[in-house]
Amino acid sequence: MSRPRTPRKRSIKRPRVPGRKLSLQAAAEELRLARAPAAPKLLPSTQYIPPTVDLDRLQTSRLLPARYSDSVLTRIADTSEDLQLIFALDGVTNERLLAESNNRFWMPARELISGLPYARIINAAFAHPHPQGARFSTPYRGAWYAAFELATAKAEVLFHRSVQFAEISWSEREVLDYDHYHAEFSGGFHDLRESELPLPRTGLGEDTREERRDWEQAQRVACLDPESYIASQQLAVELLDGGALGVVYPSVRRSGGTCLACFRPGAVANVRKRDLHRLTWLPDEPPTFRRITRVESGRGSLEAVKPAANAGSGA
User: Fold this and answer.
1) Within a domain: 45
2) Entry pTM
3) What is the pLDDT of residues 45-57, one digit of tens each?
C-alpha cells in the first residue's frame, strides 16, 4: 500500500553554520530568512469544470488528531523565559503563524479567520498542507476536508493511517485519539457525485457533444483515482484560481460516503468540537474506534468510554 502519487514539492534549505552554536533568538532569525516564501508552481489547466450544487449542509464530520487541539509548547519549557524563546522559534517555523502574519502569499492573511471559536483549528487546515498535498489541495495550500457521515470520516482516517504505518513497516499496536469537529457549509460547491453526466448544452453536433461528455466523464473518474492525486490537484488549482468555494465528491475510501473539500477558510462555519474518538490499530486485526464522551463536572472534565464501534458505523 502506498500513498497516491502527487507532484513533488521543492525542498527548503535550512541554514547550517559550521562551528558556531546559535542562540534560540539567532536560530529563529536565520530560519525566518531561510524560509522566505517561494512561488508555488501552478499545474496546467484541465479545462474541466464540474457543475455546481447549491449546498446547505448543517453538519459535517472532521476527525483531527487530538494532539493538534492544544499547544504542547507549555509542557516543554522549564521557565517563563524559556517559554518566550520557544514561542519566538515557533513563530518563524509554524506555517499557520506565518500565514496569519501575511508571510505566505499563497495563503494571504486576509483569508484567514480571527475572533471566532476554533479559528486556530480552521486556519491550520489551510496553512499546514501535507508535504505532498491531498486529493483537492496542493503542498502549498491546504483545505478543510470533512465527510457528510462520521463513518466516512473514520474510513478516510483508517486508510491514510494504514498507509503511513505500511510505509514504515510498523507492526506494533497503536492507540490514537481524534477530536470530532462539526462544521456547516452553504453556497455553490462543485459537484463530482454525478456518475452519469448529461450531454453538454452547446451548439455542437450530436457526435461532438457525446465525445465531450465522454471526455468530461474520464476527467471526473481521473479526479477520483484511488492511486493518484495528479488530476484532482490540477482541478483544485483551476477551481481555486476561479474563486470556487470547494468540491463535493464521493468518498474513494467508503462506498456510498460523501466527502467535501472546502477551499476558503471563511466558508467553514459554526465549527464545534464533539466527542473524542479513540482508534486502536492492530497490524493483523481490524482496527476499531471507541467514542469517548466528555462529561463536565464541578471538579473538571471526566471521560466515559462508550461501547466500541467499528469504522463502518455512524457512531
Assistant:
1) no
2) 0.71
3) 447 899 999 999 9
